[in-house]
Structure formats: C-alpha cells, structure tokens
TrEMBL record:
Gene: murF
Domain Mur ligase C-terminal: 322-435
Species this protein is from: Paracoccus benzoatiresistens
Short name of any one Pfam family annotated for the protein: Mur_ligase_M
UniProt name for this protein: UDP-N-acetylmuramoyl-tripeptide--D-alanyl-D-alanine ligase
EC supergroup of this enzyme: ligase
Amino acid sequence: MSLWTAEEAAAATGGRVQGNWVAAGVSIDTRTIQPGDLFVALKDLRDGHDFVGQALDKGACAALVSRIPDGVDAAAPLLVVPDVLAALEALGRAGRQRMTGKVIAITGSVGKTSTKDMARAALAGQGRIHAAEASYNNHWGVPLTLARMPRDTDFAIIEIGMNHPGEIAPLSRLARPHVAMITTVAAAHLEAFGAIEGIAREKGSIFQGLEPIGHAILPEDLAVTQILRDCADDAGALVMGFGSDGQARLVQARPDDGALRCHARIGGETVDFTLHTTGMHFAMNAVGVLAALAAAGADVKEAGKRLGDWLPPKGRGAVEDLAGLRLIDDAYNANPTSLSAGLATLAGLQGGRRVAILGDMLELGEDEIAMHRGMADDPAMSQVDLVHSAGPRMRHLHDALPSAKRGIWAETAAELAGRVADLVAPGDIVLVKGSKSSKISTVVDALRKSSQTPASETKD
C-alpha cells in the first residue's frame, strides 16, 4: 500500500529527497517501526537522528531528517528538511488536504482516549476508519496521526490534548474537523490556567478549527457549559448538547452484572446500547459519541449496536478479575472529576468489600490540598469500605476520612506496593487511581503479580 511516494512527501514538506522510495506508513519509534515506514527523526528526550541508521536497518523506506546523521551513507534514502517537526506538520496538513471523508476531533479534561476508542468501535462496518493510536494528542501526535491517514479514509477520529494555553486551536486548525466534541471540563492542569473558566475557554478553542457549517458537541451539565457554547457560537458551529438533558441525552442506564444497559435519544432517534462497564461517565460520553457520529453522517443505530464491542483500555477504568479479587485499573491519570467517576464505578460493582487505593492528583494548582481533602465528601465515598493512599497530597484525604475507612497511607506508591498483602483480602473489589506521575500503577503491577503467586510461596 502506498501512503506517501517520495515525490508526494517532498512536495508536501518542501524538502530535498534522496532516492525513489514509497512509504507504507510513518513512524517515530524504531522499537515499533515496520518495514516500509518513513522514519521521522524527531527530537524529544533523545534525538531521532541518532536512530536513523537503526531504522533503515529495520526496513524503513527512508528517514525524514534535518541533516545526514553520522554513520549514515550520504546516498541513503532520506527526505532532508530544515525542521523535522515543521515538516511532520506539513505532511499531516497534506494528508488532511487529500482526504475527502469526515473528521471528528475530540478533546476534554477527562476521557479523550476512551471516547476516541468508543467512536472507533462504534463506526466499525461503516467505512474505512482511521484513529489516533494510544494518546497521540499533542504537538507531534496530531500531525503524526494525520500523516498516517490513508487517502481513502471515510471517518478519521483525532484526539487533541493540551497542557498549556494556546495549544488546542492550532492543532484543531491542522485537523480541520467537521465535528468537534468536548467530553468534559475539569480541574486538570490548573497550575497553567488558574481557574476552571480558563480551561473551558481552551477546550472551547477546538471549535476554531471546524470546517464551515461544522458541528460542536458539548456537555450540557457543567457550570462552564455556557462558556463552551459561546466558543461554539463564535466559530459559527451548529451546537448539540449531550448529557442528562439536551438534544442528545441519556434516558436510562441500568446496571446489569458489570455492564450498563443504556437507552438514549440522539436528536430525534432512540438508540439502545450496552457498555461493558459500570462507569456512568462512560455512558454519558457514549451519548456524546453517538451525537458526534450522527453529525458526521454515520448510521447512529448501527453505531449503538457496535458500542458493545468497546472495552475500557488498560489503566483507564478497565475491570478485570484477578485470582481472589476484582480490579478496576484506573491508574493512568486523575483529577477530582475523574476520581469521583472512578469511585462511582467502584460503588456500582456488587460483591465483596470495596477498597480504593489512591495516589496523588497532580497539577491542580493552589487549591490542591482542599481538592484532595474534599474527596472525603464525595457521594460515592459512602459506599467505599476502605481507602489506602500514597503521596503527600493524599495524606490530606487520609486525615479527612472517618477512622473506619482509613487504611494505610504511605509516602510513595512504591512503599504502598511493597505492602500489597496488607492492602486487600480475597473477595475485594479494588479501585486503583492516581495521576500517572504518582506511579500508583506500581500497585496495580503488585496486585497482578500477587494474584499469580501460589499461596505456598507467600508463606513465611
């Protein structure tokens, strides 16, 4: 399959091409590169130019570089440009320009990746689908996704994220979506924005990249919903709100043995779907997905049927059965909104003792202590039997909990993971949640390892 010929890539980037090659894919990582890929020598923690020789040895058809690296033959197949990241953006822009299908862009403080994956699953069977891998949603992830997009794509799903003001609008203008969806606005990256209203305006800037007569899909039930609507109106978008009210609304979500049987209205249509999770936030986002797909011209009833094929990804609320206990692995990221959703998921599962193992929530700004302490009053906390925690910020939640719920607190997640035998008991339902940098995922790893260890090996 031809994704880019040397001539096309040179025309898109303005670079100088060496060799007459054809790229079947685009890669930035020699660990996962496939034969026929164009290797992009980005600079990040390491300089990608140091790996060009390795990429070519592994079968890369060529490399996108700003210089000929040491040890690489001067006649090697290359595309030489002044700036590699700018060239990747240009390649992504050209990939978007030649594509005639519909583009759906997704952003939000919580749930971008899971919602993107939901949309991909729901669209199965309705054409050729292209979506971002993993959480490729930043200044290189979005252009990389666009550069990888086959020219005959019918639906593209682009995830757009941010850490600082001014990041979303340029990426949306690069993607030029026909439909843009915001999952929610929450207290994430407050250190960079100062207030939730600033985060809402940044999220709302995704609508600046919409194609003419584009559609804005936004949550109805937020204190900052009006800010999002104002952003959509400023962009001239057609607006559809989703949530418990609005044009796209969740009418019913009935728990059923670890699943949710859902009934929704999307515009004028009634849609029934099943999600293999008990997280109500996932059901709300599924309604938003259906609204976005309807706006993109997809068959919404068929999409509802396909939602049952979606499963929460690893580290983002997936429920798995280990030997002797049930684990909710939600250790990828955390803020008060997503932690509240995780606790609600834990509360919704039936079985044994409910145990929460929590790591620090980071980048919350000057109110971080109050936000951690305030989780003691979360409605779902009444259904949680025991809370273990790690990190200096979580110490404030630990101290605010009733003594009956107060489990082990440790300075670090590694210390907590070392006491895994003291954290849980057979039959427990366990939520592990925290910001990625808190390294609370080490507890998940310890729980999985413990479940695989024969009982005879755990005795003194």
